[in-house]
């Protein structure tokens, strides 16, 4: 069994990172994600913050916090990795291993990670990519760019999502 991210046992606090927000107007520091897990890779767009969480089963999930409503939404909840979330407005994209692992994983394939997109307003989820391992998404108002990774040559791909 390969363990990634968080080490269990007595050293959990040393590997436990949290997400905080600083309100410039008031000088207030607001805890966003402070569980006994490793929260990281925060991205901000407007009033929303997204991040990945590695829990005690060593699998990543994606969360979004709305600073206006002070509500946290769990975007993914599977027994496989969903990580490296990015956000633009009410759209969140991430690398997802439900159809196979990424090439960065140790162990047997299939290596067929994908990029998924969620529209937070509509509550819909869309598969953006096809065959092969796709990783490292970036998002703008209309485009998702990701790395189609292979053992020999990686290539960047851009997809217009709206």
Give an account of the 3D structure.
The protein is mostly beta strands and 162 residues long. The chain has one domain (39-160): TolB, C-terminal domain (Neuraminidase, 6 Propeller), CATH 2.120.10. The chain is built from no helices and 13 strands. The protein has a four-stranded antiparallel beta sheet with strand order 3-4-5-6, with no helix packed on it. A four-stranded antiparallel beta sheet has the order 7-8-9-10, with no helix packed on it. Strand 3 (38-45) and strand 4 form a beta hairpin. The N and C termini lie far apart (40 Å).
Shape: globular
CATH topology: Neuraminidase
Total of domains: 1
- Tell me the major beta sheet: 4 strands, antiparallel
Radius of gyration: 16 Å
SSE blueprint and pairings:
Blueprint: E1 19-23, E2 28-33, E3 38-45, E4 48-54, E5 60-66, E6 71-74, E7 82-88, E8 91-96, E9 114-119, E10 124-127, E11 134-139, E12 143-148, E13 155-160
Antiparallel strand pairs: 1-2, 3-4, 4-5, 5-6, 7-8, 8-9, 9-10, 11-12, 12-13
